[in-house]
Amino acid sequence: PMVDEFAPLQTGAMPKLKARLFANENPLGISQKAREALIKAIDIGNRYAWEEFDEMKKLIADKEGVKPENIMLTPGSSEVLLITAMHFAANSGTVVTSRPTYDDLLDKTEVFKGRIVSVPLTKTYQYDLAAMKAKINADTKLAYICNPNNPTGTIVPPADLAAFAQEVSPTVPVFIDEAYIDFLEPGDRPQLGKLVAEGKNVMLARTFSKIHGFAGIRLGYVIAQPDMLKTLEKYTTGEFGISIATLMAGIASFKDLDWQNHCRTENARAREYTTKALTEMGYEVIPSYTNFMLFPIRMKPKTFEGQMFANGVGIQTRTFGGQSWCRVSIGTMDEMKTFVDAFKKVTS
Ligand code: PLP
């Protein structure tokens, strides 16, 4: 994913790293229950998945307060971003957003000859919803919001997001990429499923790649109006696109709240340690609500990336606002100690 942004990977084989902190993966692995489900799936791999789709959708629907008809399952949420871009880019459709953000849907929109209108993030690196609203006009086909945002790790206040979605969705579908939503404490989440249940034209993209650790297993979904899903489904291989093993593992992982809570708690602990260490070194970390964080660096980005790699630590860099930044994923506590040690070495 996004290899073009990532210089060390272009040189060929992935080097052996002590800390792989460039892809916002779950360093703790998958739930034991998901592992057991994958093993069970071996024996029924000759069968097409059938009732597993219904069971997975029902579990999600019950949690979100929507109906199973409001859910489409996909192999990761990248597929949702792709098909949404394919659909809304048609006839030079315009997507309104705020940047820097996760550019996948926006890049694909351009591939399919759509247009992007973007406003900068606010001074505190949050989505600027008011400025976005001001840009919405008759050409706008979609509003794209990534919340929590990648690469900044920031969120918009849940009430502001809900108000934006309420106000804008009667004219333009509001698409919210919630890949990192599970890292928020349950009480802090925007609960936008409610708006979908009320019939609003709101689309929520979700993934199992993060808290569930399914980045390589591939499972995602979108919560939206049934008509919208019917339209989007035409761009997919539908229920042939997801394996029975993936679904069985997804069902087991979704039910395993202990594992999700463990991953969230460990992530917050390692994030706090890293924030503190960087702050003590005089770096201003943007407060993160996710499993990665962004902070300004004082070296050339590619030099920094290369030297961190040479010390066994994979990270990513960004350049915006006249500043270079390090985006580091939150690994295990040990990996974050390795990161901090390498960072001290490289910057001293
Ligand atoms: N959305 C955001 C904001 C992401 O950061 C990512 C991956 O890092 C994705 C979507 C896509 O993830 P996946 O296709 O693994 O669900």
3D architecture notes:
The structure is a single chain. The longest helix has 24 residues, at 257-280. With 348 residues, the chain is of the alpha/beta class. A 7-stranded mixed beta sheet has the order 2-8-7-6-5-3-4, with helices on both faces. The mean pLDDT is 95. It is globular. The protein is built from 13 helices and 12 strands. Bound molecules: pyridoxal-5'-phosphate. Pyridoxal-5'-phosphate (PLP) binds at residues 24, 76-78, 102, 146, 150, 177, 179, 207, 209, 215, 220. One of its GO terms (molecular function) is transaminase activity.
Uncertain residue ranges:
none
Strand ordering within the main sheet: 2-8-7-6-5-3-4
Report the sheet-strand fraction: 15-25%
The pLDDT mean sits at: 95
Question: Sheet bearing the most strands, described?
Answer: 7 strands, mixed
Q: How large, in whole angstroms, is the Cα Rg?
A: 20 Å
Number of helices: 13
Shape: globular
What's the number of extended β-strand segments? 12
Percent helix, as a range, is 40-55%
Question: What structural class results from the helix and strand content?
Answer: alpha/beta
Quaternary class: single chain
Report the end-to-end length measured between terminal Cα atoms. Answer: 31 Å
* Cofactors, ions, other ligands: pyridoxal-5'-phosphate
The run of helices and strands is HEHHEHEHEHEHEHEEHHHEHEEEH
